[in-house]
Amino acid sequence: MLDRSKRTKNKPIKNKRNRGRAALIAFLVIVIVGAGAYTFRKSLAVMAFDLFLSGQVEQKLEKSYSPLEGEEQKSVVPEQKMKPFSILLLGVDQRKSEPARSDTMIYAVVRPEESKVLLISIPRDTYTELVGRDKEDKINHAYVFGGEKMAKDTVENFLGSPVDYYAAINFEGLKQVVDALGGVELPITKDIVNKHKDHEKFTIKAGKPLYDGQEALNFVRYREDSDFNRTKRHQIFLNAIVNRMLKLDQVSKIPELMDMLGENFKTDMLPSYIIDLSKQVLLGDSPSISGFTIMGEGFRKNGIFYDAANEEDVQYAQEMIKSWSDAETESSQLLMPESRDAKASTTESSNNQAVSKE
Q: What residues form the membrane-spanning segments (predicted)?
């Protein structure tokens, strides 16, 4: 078992807990479907959405519906209450000259009735078995070798928990969305320069009121600092898109924005289920998002950097998934990421006291 206090000398390890890391990925579809209407709130929002947009949006979502090969199509049975479900969120960065890579991998548990979401972030360099290749490698390579299917199977094996759905979003497609919104606000206080000889060259000027699609995409892709900062920029970028939509109240643009995502968004969630889920979010309170990042200790193998996942973190993630996936678990009784932090702090304090007494 790894010591949580250790840190590799070769590369910075991820921050202790990246609260809400890339949290908006979990609700990106819901936000695009319902963000414009969200400012109207509650029953009025659902009424307006049903009357003017629901049919169009469902038709657009049909193009993104992509069930996994070899798996049965998931049917949706109308229920009075929507049960908790899990979804693997894949933030994909694909350039024309490179294979697609899942830069962001998040196992999410959604409790629609309570508007609660648990996000468990899996660092992309995590060393684990790639299901279907019979070898160990970086977990994000599962997407490179076997797409959404291998990524899903590998994450299920890694966490020992089933994945009900997947959603893969390519950041390239969001560039057009940003331009359609007239740009987004980004908190850039110092020029960002990608200048390494092996990297794409670009400069993003600081202090601009709005940044266009290409600048926003470069902001996401900048890779010359820590991996933690890069994933944090993913979160900032997605938040910026949502905030811009809400600020402009762009209800009528929702179908157009769905068109722009096009092939850059895929999921095996039925369009009708996404519509129902969007209505549930509109009728409920603002979503409460809890984030947990599985830590790791860095090591090198054959000159390549990997993360060896902390076994205690993996076990705690499994316990949280079980707690959140059980519809019978009361909201107040849900196992939270903060409980892990409190437990770790208590243990560390007890150990320090024992050492001081000696």
A: 21-40
